[in-house]
Amino acid sequence: MDIVSNLLSHPVHVIVALAVVLVLARAGRAAARWLRQPEVVGEVTVGLLIGPAVLALSDRAAFDTLLPAEVLDVLKFVGQTGLVLYLVGLAHKLRPGPGSPSQRTLSGLVAGAFVFPLTTGLLLVGLIHLTDDTAARGDAPMPAFVLLVAVAMSITAVPVLSRILGDRGMSDTTEGQFALASAVVMDSLGWMMLTLAIGLGAGDLSGLWGSGLALLAGGGCALLLRLGLLTAPARRLCLRMPRTTAVLLGCAAMGTALLTERLGMTAIVGAAMIGLAIPGEALAPWTKPVAAVSHAGRTLTPVFFVVTGVTVLIDAFSAASWTLITATLVLGCVGKLLGGYLGARLAGMPSGSARRMGVLMNTRGLTELIVLEAGHRAGILPSPLVLALVIMALTTTAMTGPLLGLVDRAERRRGGSPTAPGLPGPVAAKGTAP
């Protein structure tokens, strides 16, 4: 009710703020294209820096006039709505495709590109402890803090990776499909570990019971939705009225997300459950409704970036040390580049393909920011550490294209092909656009 009253009392201010955010997001995407970067890099960077930049150019009183608390509350809700709707499509894409790579090759790459970065997360926690960086440590329970930092260092963003593969003409290659299938597995493992970390963040048995209740409630809603979607009337509705179906799916996702949040779990978990519950294409053509829901969320996610910049990063710029930022970036790169390379070699790939796989696994992007938002909202990740991880996510994503170019040029100089003609095991995986 507070959101509704704030919206009704400041409708023009809210509309103007949303318009400004969306225009700046468009400018960020255009700048990213000009720099030959994924659009999400420009969009996220602009969104996160709007608030800190305005505050740096003015004083706090002027900033509060431009963006009063009532308007910010509405923007928070809009940003959360965008995130929830976007996650429906992302989680749906995490479902296994009709084909799969051989277990040996897939497990080899996952072992390197996921397990190895987990250890770099432990190293980062150790560094925070050794430097006695209380601002980056916060006061969350140690098991939850360690697990969430490890997950944040291990994420490979499926949406951005899919876009990079498409831009470089690698989507239909065995190498590109193998990378995407591995990223799907790693992100699925990451979501499960994120849920566990948030549950551990409760800090006591009653909190864990509350998190368990939230998971049961969200899972129950997702199960009811899936059973309903498997019926003949639902399939007919999907075929005849895809837009209406998309609206109903969006409402189900928002309702489940708000329920899980009210019960003590992040709304992100509820949204992911709904995405996973939607049947695959073999049972009904859900592609169009799911894509419509995800596109609506993608349109609103710039608001989420702006709110994150205002509520999390403004104070973090002065509290985060350069030691923390540098160590996070170095460990993030080492974990994915080296881990992806070693995992690919373990899976039997040639050295050129293994180097390319390590670069692809280093792509983090929007998925990383979603994990960080969940960890910060749960009180596990303090703002300075979130800032360091955001810089790491944006930098590693921006590095992907140039590093792939370097690897390809090195392959050509050696007389090899820039993409491997044959890799172990057939792969069929689906990607998503960011």
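^ that was protein a. below is b, sequence first then the tokens
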Amino acid sequence: MATETMVQNQQLEAKNIETISGPTMDYDVSVQKMSPKVDALRILEPVRKKLASIEAERIISVVEKTIKKIEIVTLIPHLFDNLDRFNVALGLELVCAIKENNRLEGHLDFAVGKLFEEDDPEVESQSTIRKVKLKEKQQDIKILQQAFGSSVKNILRIFQGNPSACEIIQTECRARSGICADLILALMELRDFEFERLLIMPTEEKEKFEYVQKIIKQDKKNTDIIATLEAELATAIQDKENEMLKKNEILRKLKNNLLQLDLFSEDYIRQVKQDAEKQQLTYQKDSEGRIAKYQEEMSQLRTQLNNLISEHRASEVALRKRKYKIETEIENWIQKYDADLQEKQEEYQHIFKLHKEETILLFELEQKISMLEPEYSQIVEERKVKEQERQAKQQQTYLMGKAAVTIQSFWKGFKVRQLMKALKKKKKGKKKR
């Protein structure tokens, strides 16, 4: 019976494979017939490689300039950290602008930090004076933000006038943070995307749309073919289920045969139970003798246990005394630790007050320095103008001296030529005589 069922299963699987493989071959042929002659990737790619309109070129140039400016701005912290290395290449004006930018950034961070420290709902509910102070600090932060933005614009303007500095900082691209690098890559991808969109003309876009519509129609045809194949697959599955019902009927007959075997085996089981009951009586007698023996051993072990308990109680009293002594020592150490901690806390409060006073002095000194910085920059500019005037005068005197030397040499040559002509005339007159 089992061999017959296995043969029937193999025949059914072969039939299912034939029914499924037949339509799929037809589907592959139909797909090959529907495949277009033109490559889809070539049609979807833009035909042109250059922009045709001025507006498109302007859009791309705006994106490229934005990328260049962001590349410069993201390197400003690295330039400030390495001003000693880039001092000569950047120039005095650019170095001063970077320092000014870092100073404004520090003031802005300090102001924002102070604002977050005092921005507490409990403090705001105490008095309206604190609210007024918070508004003033917010206005100061806005002013600092505007000054910081103008300083960044000034740095970009100076970089535009100094192309050599731009070339030098381009080599430091690895100093950017990961977020800045991701931003620049995203902008570059945006530029490439916009460039591809601007390369496509309206007529080309219409052709591509028509081509996509053709592909959609082909896809609908393919879905219809898939639906027919699924229907054929459903019929094949139904045939397989019918075959499984037949196999289940065979299994039911086998189960009935097994039940009959169970009935024949009941007599054998009854006999085995009788033998087991006899063995159980013999085992019970043996177990009663063992239980008596074990009870004697238990009484001996209980006496040993009582002796051990009396011994361990004496040792427990000694350990308790030792524990009490150790606990008293620990309490004394804790009291000493609390006293030392109180002294350290008082010392910390004293140092904190001194630190607060020094921070106030530092802020006042920074304000004085910020007031003196414009005068310093004006003096540096005046010195620069005087140096340029001095160099111009030196160049003018050098050119005048060179011109005088050339005039003198020309005049000497002219005199020498006149003397030579006079000598030649004298020699001719003597020959005629």
